[in-house]
Each structure stands twice: as C-alpha cells, then as structure tokens.
Amino acid sequence: MRAAQPRSRQQTLALRRQLVGSSCKLFFSNDPLKIVKAKGQYMYDENGRQYLDCINNVAHVGHCHPDIVKAAHEQNQLLNTNSRYLHDNLVDYAERLSKTLPEKLCTFYFLNSGSEANDLALRLAWQYTKHQDVIVLDHAYHGHLTSLIDISPYKFRNLEGQKEWVHVAPVPDTYRGLYREDHEDSVTAYADEVKNIIEHAHKRGRKIAAFFAESLPSVGGQIIPPAGYFQKVAEHVHKAGGVFIADEIQVGFGRVGKHFWAFQLQGEDFIPDIVTMGKPIGNGHPLACVATTKEIAEAFAATGVEYFNTFGGNPVSCAIGLAVLDVIEKEHLQAHATEVGNFLMKTLKEQQIKHPIIGDVRGCGLFIGVDLIKDQAERTPATAEAEDLITRLKEKYILLSTDGPGRNVLKFKPPMCFNMEDAKFVVETIDKILTDMEKECLNQEKTSVCST
After folding, report:
1. Fewest C-beta in 10 Å: which of 31, 64, 151, 159?
2. Do the strands 409-412 and 401-403 form a parallel or antiparallel pair, or are they unpaired?
3. Largest CA distance in the chain
4. pLDDT tens, residue by residue, 32-73
C-alpha cells in the first residue's frame, strides 16, 4: 500500500478546511493539534511531542491497547460479516455484558454508535408504551440523529426549538441548579419537577413514553445527581405508563470506580428499563449496545418488522468488546479509577481552598468536574477564564476541555490508565497557571487604579 505523503500541520489544516464541512469543529481551533500517534493516556503530535490526554473517554482502557489491537487483528484475519449468521462472539459478548447488569436487563441489541443506540432506545420506548412524549434534562445531549437532536436541549435550542412532544426538566444540579446544597430535600424537589411536567402533559391530553437521561449528565456540566433522585423519577414515570432510559454512553464500563454502571450510584433499588452504551465500549472501535427487558424486546418484535443493523454485532466488533471487558478486569481498572479519582478529587479540593475561582469540585471515579466561577455569591460562570486556562494547559502539554451551559466546567474523563503521577502533574500545573492568572489580574487592577 502506498504510504500517505507526509504533510505539514498547516497543509493538513488547509486541506481539511477545503474538504471537510466547517461545522465539524477542531479542538483549539485557533491553533489546532495534529495528532499522529497515541498510547495509553498519551497522544503525540507530528513532531513527537507528548500530550497528557485528560478527556478521551472513548479510549477507555488506553489508546491503542495491545490486547484490543490484537483481538481486532486476529478476528479480522478469520471473518467479519453481519449477525444473520451464527457466531460465538456475539453470544459470548452478550452473556458477558449480562453479568454486569441487573438480571432483568437481559436482552441486547448491538449497533455502531451511541447515537444509533439512543435512537433505538426511543423506538423501543415508543413501541412498548404506545405513547410519544419524552422527558429529558435541561442541557442534555443524546446524539446527532434527527430523533436525538429533538430530545437534546443542548442542540435544539440553537435550531428549530423544542417539539411539542418533548418536555425539559431541570438538571438535578445541587451546586448551581434550582435546588442547591442547602435545600432540605433536593432529591424530592427535583423529582417533583418531573411529576409536575407529567401532570401538566396529562392535562393537555399527552402521554409519557420515557424519561431519558444520562446517568451522570456530562455536557450539562459533569453533574452528579443526588442519590435517590432516579428512584423517585422512575416511580412517577412508571405510574404514567412510561419507561426510564439510562444513557451510559459517556460514563459506563467502570469509569465511576465503585460501580460498573453509573446508574448504580443511585442505589441497588434502582434499575432502568433500558440502558444504552457506546463510546468506551469498543475503545475507539465503532460499537454500541442497548440492553433492555424481555417484555420491552417482545413488544418491539411484535410489530413483525425485523431490526437489522448491517455491522451491529459483527464478529470483529464483538471480539473487541470482549477484549475491553477482559482488560478492565485484568488490569483492575475499576479499583484504579476509584483510587486515582479519589486522589484527584482530594488534590483539586485543596486547590479550591487556595484559588477562589474554583467554586466546586464534583465527581466520582475518573469522571470529575471543576466549576470555575467569577464570584462566590452569584456563582457566575468564569467562561473566559476557563478557556484561557485550557489554552495554557495545552501549552504545558495537557489536553483538557470545558463543558456546562456556561462552558466553565473543566471536565476530566481520561483513559482509565490515567495514573497518580498524571494526576499530580495536572493539579500542580493548574495550580501554577491559576496563580499566574491571579497575579496578572492583580497587576491589571493596580494599573487601572494608577491610571485613574
């Protein structure tokens, strides 16, 4: 095979601008990186410079993990075809996944992306309940298909707006949401918002098909819903004849450390009706899954219309999925996420005491958000300062990004091999940069006073 001609970063950028749609954005658009190689938690540019990757939750067990590469290569040499033929990889993988989930979630559909999985989850809910309306959390993002843009406030608020059949509940954020840490019962208060939405919909003659939520809202700002919230919401939704869909696409597969699935943080008494999986499931290979109950699956099959996905559940994808599960287990990555995540949370909270710009540090395992604010009283998002910090971190060879409605929440979702030394390096660098930013701000204030 003819090797691609080496290009400079600027040549690649020029070609991208010429050939790729401008709505496909780049990280650090003013000075984008050209990444040519990655290994573990590190990425390398065309000049061999190493960057610490703190945000790539897709490369779940580490970039280019040798066990994953080997599994893909070996199966590719034997067979890759669709799921209309019997193959052990498909049933072996479904069986392995079933052992990580509550018993009633025992039927699986395999797909190629989180968006496909969430779209199928919607179809399952609609067919099972015979209802149409969906309740989602504010600022949510569930995928790029038309059906998912419709249920993603993060997207539809900038497009055609909210559809009549979509209802938006406040995100259960106890730091900057409607009901905060000083509320006597934020769990019930947030769940009652969903109950009120249902009651209002019923008065208008509408019926609820599903409550659809990320187990830990990510785009919404790395939010950790208070324990017990999902149980109360599920009670209201089930009473209305709807189902509860847990989107685990960002946060599943042991990222939260103490549990394999983030919805399990709510307690053993909470079990969703449908769970969707993507991103980390294939460590960068296009793979996704929907898990549901027999009853919901049978209602979907009752239409008589076949569900077929050309590449969903192919032998190569399933071999990779199995290898990811093996690595998580063999390398004790759940326990690792707990240990490193606890250390990272602790050291970031120490910086919170030192730097007033850090308003909140929240998270679980290796899913952590640092909420940057302009003032303690109003908790105004420090959007510009967050962007400045991210840019300066890149100059120190650390890749981090922001999320949240105010684009002011630093999001940590690194590959699960991210270690203690990495955590120390990141926190020490953040400390130095914030100290520099504070000095610069103080100097500007002195200059302003002197000039007046």
Report:
1. 159
2. antiparallel
3. 80
4. 999 999 999 999 999 999 999 999 999 999 999 999 999 999
